[in-house]
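Margin note from the TA: students keep mixing up input and output lines. Inputs are the sequences; the output is the structure of the whole complex. Example:
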Amino acid sequence: MRAALAHPCTHFPLEYPYLMTPLTNDLFLRACLRQPVERTPVWMMRQAGRYLPEYRATRAKAGDFLSLCKNPDLACEATLQPVDLVGVDAAILFSDILVIPEAMGMELTFLHGEGPKFPVPIRTTADVIALPVPDPMVELKYVMDAIALVRKNLAGRVPLIGFSGSPWTLATYMVEGGGSKSFSVIKKMLFDNPQALHQLLGKLADAVAAYLNAQIASGVQAVQIFDTWGGVLTTRDYSEFSLDYMQRIIDQLTREHEGRKVPVILYTKGGMGWLEQIAATGCDVVGLDWSIDIDQAKARIGNKVALQGNMDPAMLYATPDRIRAEVRDILTRFGSGDGHIFNLGHGITPDVPVDHARAFIQAVKEESPAFHQQGSLP
Amino acid sequence: MRAALAHPCTHFPLEYPYLMTPLTNDLFLRACLRQPVERTPVWMMRQAGRYLPEYRATRAKAGDFLSLCKNPDLACEATLQPVDLVGVDAAILFSDILVIPEAMGMELTFLHGEGPKFPVPIRTTADVIALPVPDPMVELKYVMDAIALVRKNLAGRVPLIGFSGSPWTLATYMVEGGGSKSFSVIKKMLFDNPQALHQLLGKLADAVAAYLNAQIASGVQAVQIFDTWGGVLTTRDYSEFSLDYMQRIIDQLTREHEGRKVPVILYTKGGMGWLEQIAATGCDVVGLDWSIDIDQAKARIGNKVALQGNMDPAMLYATPDRIRAEVRDILTRFGSGDGHIFNLGHGITPDVPVDHARAFIQAVKEESPAFHQQGSLP
């Protein structure tokens, strides 16, 4: 219905015929825009992941993790699995936030059990200047191909979410050379050479904006910016080195495509002290971690944006009954009204039993209609 | 002066003659009680640690980490090093939060580069029931001996802080079997068997209260409860599984000794959303991590408690000039008035240059007098 309007994106009429497919379940997109829904939509961050045996099989076919990201057929397969197997209301493209720096020419390795590594990290102003800005339709074409395949294979069942890491979060890996606990190298750069860091973040913001716009042109129907590490900063530094660059991305994004709005979701883990500033960026949805009660978040910013979240991911280790009680508790806290996308407060962890993930999705579907008026459909 | 009052602790007149020594620098204790000071006192969490070459030499003498904790002479040596070498305004007993579960009979190992491990973790109600409650004057006598030695050797130069982990934080290690990122085992217990966890936390709260009271009787002049992992909980679970048990400890503590108040400092990393609840426990000081601006924390709870913090520990990687600018910024945010103990927002990290730590302490000493009225001394 909504997606079946005359196609607005005239420069892709033949290459992207899948863009014409109407959505049979658009609960997620409506909730993002705080429009009425019959029940609360639900998906899970990292839902295409290791807790699914089918995902592990797909990954084994690809060989290593990065090869999986770069293989559109297998990335499509992984993207669809949670839709088919767990019943989520949105698909999220299977990929990794670090494909951007890799597309900028940085060597990226995922050694077994070690996490991502950049053997040659960015450390100096000269390093920053030397970094090329990628053309997402060239260096990240494999992502666009995966999006096309996913959209074709979804056939309108649920919307597809695209994503990127935030400039700050990407920069932490690029400067530290991998994951970090103390963030000592990038913070030293922030304190002693802020100009170089600003230059890097500016370059990344523009690269991310171009990348997300390419994803939107290729068919993602919403985008999420993951600021996994914004929460390690002080309030002042979060504003200057993370939020400002997410703002710069949002200002450049295509906000409408296929005749409907493309919602932007902004998620800063550990950023619950800064919700007002996050909501003021012009994003449509603010992602919540589990450290804040959703009623408090709603009281603070619920008149401006939709809220996504926020069950503690560790709740999925509990029994299905306990999970359902928690779902009911969060729904009750949010209360009646629209603008809630149910999700975890962070990604689902690899050792969660699949049955528990399914019980969670089912509980949201069964418990949430009571909190909604009759929907917008006749 | 204050500490030279007639000795109030009549049951230790001979064994503890060092308790008679007057304090020449009691800035820290006065600031904890929001009394006037001439300048802002400063110390650093984990100040007796690996960034000091002298500490590394002391540890090498001890062999392994746990042997260092259990050797009163060497623990005393480590405790005094930052006072002598860096010039802090308070000593904090060198020890580890995990000596309590070790005193409860749990085997504890610190393998090189691996962090602490409990090879036989607590998992069931039966495990919890079987845990003995230690007598701190027996099983933790080595701590009390270290306190006696430190007080003698400090000779009143600065006050001595004692400490413990919070029950929740101790329980995470005891149940997980070591450090954790997802806290999946203890959270599963919290969700599915809360009775067992409550029983464990109750036992720990009483053990910690007895331990801290023994430390106070032995001569520590303030105590800090470290709730390093309270911030991984939801608001509801933080209140029920962490804060309530810290309250239970505070309610049992000796609040006066040697003729003066013994301040209680409560520090929950990641707990900045819950400052009002933390301040309502009756603690004297709330420790702040660096995610909140100290002026905001002061506006929220500064009429009830003193504030300790809150420079980003990573700032110590920056140049001494940058460090000084940050110190000035935090002092300016706190503004005039008393009730501020300068500290880092979390522990000093092992690879910080000693010169930078010294520059930090010096900057607080030199920049802070401008923010205080003439002190209480004539």
